[in-house]
User: Fold this.
Amino acid sequence: MVASPHPAVTAVRVVSVCVVVALLAGCAGSASRQGMEPPEDYFSMSLPGMQGANPQMSPVDPIDAHLRSLQTPPPTVVRQALLEQHQRWAGTPYRIGGTTDRGIDCSALVRNVFRDTFDVELPRSTQDQVHEGRPIDRQELQAGDLVFFRPPGRYNHVGIYVGNGYFLHASTSKGVIISSLDNSYWQRYYWQSRRALEPTNLAQLSSRFMP
Assistant:
């Protein structure tokens, strides 16, 4: 007659069998999950036009590309915006120290137009505005550039170039007008030109004036 195994031995065997079964089940489950994982090029194979692309990188958002294209609007857009400002201020009388449509001086007009059109804050006085941006030759003038003059008298004068040889300014005799740089008076007292605008300052104009 064969003796029955000791109960403690039986318990050890049962536990061992359970451990082995659990390990096998775990390995099988792991293998099953590994078999379900997509290959590394799954996303590039699944998306048209993405063959060979890094699946961790998304394609360029076309909206971002469109916004970048708005950084440098054509000069006609800037000119149109400045002509709208001329309509806003036309006929306003000149008044030294003035900043409103009841009376305005040349540097205040330039400051207001830059703030309202380009969201750029310029200094209040002509003597400070002449240090803004970088100097440019008269032949390089583009709409939005600053033009400075040294007429007779105590004060210098400033205006905003609008293109085609014309500039917007507050004239001491006629108030806010558009004048020609080829006028003999302005030719005689022309001093210098400066570019105070960067392409990023002009981006907002494209959304307002371009289709």
Observations:
- Strands lie at 99-100, 103-104, 134-136, 146-149, 157-163, 166-171, 175-180, 190-195.
- The chain has two domains: 7-51, 73-209.
